[in-house]
Structures are given as C-alpha cells and as structure tokens.
Amino acid sequence: MSIGTPHPQKPTPAGAGHPVYTPTESPPHHTTEYTGIMRWLTTVDHKLIGIMYLWLALFAAVAGGAMAGGIRAQLAFPDGIGGERLMTPEFFNQLTAMHASFMIFFTIIPAFAGFGNYLIPILIGARDMAFPKMNAFAFWLLIPGMAIMLASFGFGASQAGWTAYPPLAGSQYSPFAGMDMWIFGVHLAGASSILAAINFIVTMTTMRAPGMKWFRMPLFCWATLVTSWMVLVGTPVLAGAVTMLLTDRMFGTGFFNPAQGGDPLLYQHLFWFYSHPAVYIMILPGFGIVSHVLASFSNKRIFGYKGMVYATAFIAVVGFLVWGHHMFSAGMEPWLRVYFSFMSMLVAVPTGIKVFSWLATIWGGSIQFTTSMLFALGFLGLFTIGGISGVFLANVPFDIQVHDTYFVVAHLHYVLFGGSAFTLLAGTYFWFPKMTGKYLSERLGKVIFWLMFIGMNLTFMPMHWLGIAGMARRIYTYREEFTALNQFVSMGYLLMLVGGLLLVGNIIYTVAIARRTAGNDVWGVNQTQQTLDWETTSPPVPHNFDRIPRIA
Amino acid sequence: MATPTEHNEEEIHLPEPSIWPLIVALGFGVVPVGLLLHVYGHGLGIGIMGGGALIGIIASVAWASSVIKEKASIDQKWGADSLSLGWKLFLISEAAIFGAFFAHYFYIWWRDVETWPPPGTPSIDLMLPAIGTLVLITSSVTCEFAHKALILNRREATKNWLLLTILLGLAFLTIQAYEWGYLIYSYDFTVATNVVGTSFYLITGFHGLHVVTGLLLLILVYSRLEMGAFDRKRHFSMNAASWYWHFVDVIWLFVFLTVYIGIQT
C-alpha cells in the first residue's frame, strides 16, 4: 500500500458474500428490440455509443494519418521524384490544415469522449448516462460534421491551417466553399462536445452509486469531469469565433476586417481562448487513463490521489489564462507578454505534481510490462519531453525565435502524439478486453509499441533541430540543407505507419474472429485497484450491474 | 452540489432505443450544406436547407413526445435533478457564446475609445429600445407569476400569465424588427457599415433568435398545460422555459446597457 490516500473503496454488495453482478435468467427487455444495424442506429446504451465514438476516432485517425503520410512524402521529396512534383503546394497546405483538424476534432476529442461514455457510468456505479438520448445525439452530430469536413476536399479545402486565421481564412484569400465547410465541421463537432460535456457533468453529479463520494471517484472520472467544464466554457467561444469568421466571409460583416474597423488579431484571441484549453481537453482524460494503468500494473494504489485531483483542476483553471503565449509574435503589449509567459510556466507546476505522483506510483511497485503499461510508461517519458520544450516556448525571446518553425511542430507532437495518442493506446489495450471480452495480442502489441515509440522519436526529435535551424512549418518546401534530416524524419513516419496498420488489423481481427476469454477482473488488478469496471462482466450487460453497488 | 440520490434497486429502467437522435442530427446536419449551396449560387440551396431543418424539427418533436411519454410512465424523481442541472449547464454554455460576441465588442470599444463611435454609426434614439427593455422586463415578471401560479395549482391563472408573457415577447420582437428596419432604411446602417454595425446586428440578432426560442418553449409549456400536463410539484418544462426566459432577459439588459447606451457615449 502506498502513502497516498486510497481512492475508490471496496464495493460491498448489499447481500454480503454475493458478487455485485450476478447473471440473471431474464435481463430486462425493452418493449422494442432491434437487431443488426438498427440496434446501433437506435441505441441509447452508453456502452454502444462509446464504442461507436471509438470506431469513429479510429477511422479519423487512419484518415488523418494518411494525410500525415502525404505531408511527409512531399517533405521527403520537395522537388518531386524525377522532376515530377508529388502534389501542388495548395494541396500540401490542405493536407496540413486537414491533418490537424481531423486529429484534433475527430480523433483525440471523440476518442476520449468514447472512453468517457463507456467507462464513466460503470466507474461510478450507474446504469447509463444521465441523458441517454442526448448522448446518442451528441455522437450522431459528429457524422455530418466529419462528412462535411471530409467532403470539403472536393470544394477547395481549407489551406489556412487548423487555426484558420483571418485574413488568410477570409473570403479574399480563401474564396472556396471548402473553408466554409471547415467552419461548419467545427460547429458540429463543437456542438457535439458541448452536449457530451453537459451529459458527463450531470451524470457524475447526480448518478454516483450510494457511497461513491466525490473523492472516491476514480481519477479517470475526475479528469473527464474537469475536461467537461473546460469544454462547457471554452468551446462556445470557439463556436462564436468561427461564426464571426463565417459571417465575415458570407455576409460582409466586419468583425475581423480592418477596412470596416475590425481587427484580425481579435480572432486569434478568441480562437486561442478556446484552443489553448483544448490542449488540456486533449490531455487531461489521458492523464486519467494512465493513472489507472500505471497503478494497476505496478500493483499499487495511485500515489497522492487528492493531489492528483487538485492538480488536474489547477491545470484547468490556469489553462484558461495562458492563451496569449500562442501570439507572442503577433503584436502584444510587453507587460501582457510577461504575464502570459509567467502563467504558461506556472502550468508546469501542477503538471510536475502529476508526473512525480506517477513516478512515485511505480516506485517500488511490482511492475508488469503489459502493452498497456508500456504505452503508459512511454507516455511518461515522451510527455515530459514535450512538457519541457513547452517551458522553452513559454519564454518570449525563445518563442519569437522559433515561432512557426518545426520546433513548435516537434513540441506539439510530443504532447499530442507522445502524450494524448499514447494514453489512448494505453487505454485501448487496458479496457479492450472489458469492452469486448477479448484480449488484443500482447506479443503483437509489444511490437506495435516499439514501432510507435521508436518511429515517434525518429520522426519528431529531429524536428527540434530543424526548427531551431529555421525550417518553417506549413510550407511545402525548404532550404536545401534540410533535405537529409527531412528524409530521415519521413522514414520515422514509415515505422509509425507499420505500427498503426498492425494495430488496426489486430483490432479488426480480434473483434471479428477471436474468442471471448476475459473474466470480470480482466488483468487481475481489482485486489489493489477496487474500481467498479472490474466488478461487472466483460463485456458488461446492458444494465451494467444487477444491483447498484454500495461503496463502503 | 447535489448528493447522489437513491436508485431504485429492484427495478431496472433502461431507456427505450430511439431512432430520433440520429434523424435530428442528420436533418440539422444537412442545413449547412443547403446554406452553402445557396450562398455559392446553387438553386436547390434554400430547398435543401428548409428540408433539412424541417426533418430536424419534426424529428425533434417526435423525440420530445417519446421522452414525455416514457417519463410519464416511470418515477422520475432523480430525473428532475439531472434535467435542471443539465439545463443550467446549457445556459452557461449559451452565456459563453454571448461572451465571445461581447468580448469582441468591448475590445473594439477599448481600442477605439478616443474616436468612439466609429464614423458611419448613427445616433440611435434610445426611446424605442427603452420601451422594448421595459416590455421584456415586464414579461420576465409575468413569467414568474405564471410559475408561482402553477405552484399554487391555479392552472387558469398560469395559462393567462403565460399568454401575457408570450404576447409581451412578441411585442418585443415587433419593436426590434421595426427598429432594425428603421436603422437600415433611414440611416443605411447595416452589418457591413462598420464594425459597430456588425456587432450591433449580430448581438441583437443572436439575442432575438434566443427570444424566438424562448417563445417556442413558452408556447410548448402552454400547450402542454392545455393538454393537462404538470402538477404543482412536477413541472420541469415550466421551470426550464422560465429560466430560459429570465436568461434572455438578463442578456438583453447587458445588450441595452453596453451596446445601445455604449454606442452613444
């Protein structure tokens, strides 16, 4: 037992000696039952919705990964092969914009929503989310959102990056319908996030099982709760900002048009007021996931449970006060630069608390190197690198030097790929058997981990040097001396591509063909962890628990 | 914060599956496609937009009535807690959208304070908007009377106060529409005139959209009262509609104090 405050207490069934879940002869039936595809289209079950979120995220990850492949191919051969260009500069710009948009709005955020949907009701001992139909609605909104964004390739997709700054994203420089389609895609994804956030907050506030006090909620629940508050306050501001952009484009309003007295800089403020917190929206649930994984496979309780909760909340609050550090080179009062610089460095404090608590959790534990654990440990190292380069970037003089260079690209991929994506993979390997009753191949999983880990470092580590040497991001070409390093970086991408394809293949194979072998306590960790996900069957019955557990 | 309430352990109520969330999402998802087609000069645009919206609205009504039916059949004690919290959170997110528009407006004001208001801005007569403000505040009071009457179980009085609220809301919208027309035709003051015009029409227009939504909610409550729904304890729709109406009212006070009076100074 570690020094930390123990988190969830042992659930004691109402009738002593009986397990919480006992299979019933006749599970409750609806008056209407659907089968086949209709079962998915009409479902309001948080577990099925969660799985649909995860499939959607996987699809978007494959699409976004393919776009990354296009980017890397072009940068490996900026002058083409044999005098033949691989793509037009315009298409390259579209790829960078859409790669980021897909990975952010349709991969990472929906994937965490998927895990949240599947796990939150189970972890707090509820039968479903508070608003099951709204839950389904929030998911379905993503379908037209993603369809519109994907279809925009046919109508001159956005070339303005995922940030869509005016005037570049305005009607003068982006006169194509694809830019408007991008905006609508963001609207629909944003509406979906807000509805999901409302649902999470209400579910955790009103539907916790008897005895599941706030400070007994597992850390993944806390992470999702804090994230949901950030979405609730931040995402509407993004919606407002892109709406202004849209009316400027379509109806000649002057929000960001200096000729009418507007100010393009203001878009950047409004955009980053959401989009900096979005960075935490994309990592805090991952923090929750690795807290489960690291503790489970160290055979210990999480270290410093309450400190972790407070650190998460502190990151969220400070996260709303640092947006200006994306705009140091955009023109800003010197005292504001000092403020944003200081606050940005302050984020390292609660993040440090979390990193050291994870280290204390695995310290002296009896560690099991499962694939899930490998991804969680990989996350710890990679995220720390990304965090440290983040402190570099918080320094105004350094930031101005490397602004819009590959140093920033390296930094953000260490936190978003080495961070968010690795936590998602850790969570996938950890809870996949709970969701399906089937184990993903551990042997293949380790191969995938090393391909990803090595490929990731080969790809993104050299970008730090490229950036400091002055290679600009979002440009289809570069100075000649960068060629060798760029080709090296593209080789790293190939390793990750192989890893990614193996993973997708393994998931499809396992879902379709493998047999169910998982018991309730999939990894044999319930003895130490005592979370409710290991108290029900794998996969859980539609109503999760026959009796609502009481937490003693 | 609310404490977790007891679940009924003996009965397991799982919500019925429903196709409506999917249909609503797809219906409203088609609307932007139609809008784009229209803006880029395709003849079918308006039709597709209207069709999508119509499908979305019809499916929403079907969804709402299925929920009402379902809820009526089970004990929804814990459901009411969740609903009211969820509705409040929704209002917070609405306030944040207004926040973005106000932030834009205040920033411009602060930046141009020396030459405020920018050239091209007419001096708006405050008489009409002041009347509108009074009308909207009164409607908030009458809405509260309706709510209190329902708690006292005086259903006829509830309906009358609601009707008055709805009429006052319509009066407000009329005043607003008249004022827009007046500004556009007499002063040629439009969204494109300058950034203040942009803010003025977008903020008041977005607020007007919320008034329309609030009116629809009040009408929904009124017709459910006609159908005999609600009792003195269980009337979440009434609570929700009245909160929404007060919310719209508070936002308007902000609009009046900062946009109308602010443009003058």
Task: Please tag this protein with its features.
heterodimer; A: 552 residues; mainly alpha; Cytochrome C Oxidase, Chain A; 17 helices; 2 strands; disordered N terminus; B: mainly alpha; Helix Hairpins; Four Helix Bundle (Hemerythrin (Met), subunit A)
Tell me what the structure shows.
The complex is a heterodimer of chains A (552) and B (265). Chain A has 552 residues and is mainly alpha-helical. The N terminus of chain A is likely disordered. By secondary structure, chain B is mostly helical. Chain B folds into two domains: 57 residues, Helix Hairpins (Orthogonal Bundle), CATH 1.10.287; 189 residues, Up-down Bundle (Four Helix Bundle (Hemerythrin (Met), subunit A)), CATH 1.20.120. Helix content of chain B is 77%, strand content 0%. In chain B, helix 3 runs parallel beside helix 7, helix 4 runs antiparallel to helix 5 and helix 5 packs antiparallel against helix 6. Chain B is globular. Chains A and B meet through helix 1, helix 4, helix 5, helix 6 and helix 7 of A and helix 1, helix 3 and helix 6 of B.
